Give the backbone structure.
Amino acid sequence: MPGLGFDATVSDRFANDTIRGPIGYLRSVVNVISKYKPSKYILTIDGKTYEREAFMISVANSPQYGNNAYIAPNASVSDGILDVCIVHKFPLYILPMMVFRLFNRSADQSEYVEIIPGKEIQYSAS
């Protein structure tokens, strides 16, 4: 599942950290979130162009990242469609609710999450 933004930044930091496992990942999240700024992206999905300022973007062909975190609860590995999950900028006090939604399969119900299905996806930072 390719990602852009916050999750990619955390993954990069975690990959280069000496502490592995949940503690190391949590440490990476805490270190990144205090300094992270959303970016502007240009997405082309099935020929239609979208400009979005996003906290993060994930392109999902399955419902979950792993460890029971569901970024795209309705995605399917067998339908030939990718779900472009755009997490818009949100106030930091909303973070606990966003994390809760990841684990109770309701991320797509947040006002800060937009999911656009497509087969051909291109993206760039603007």
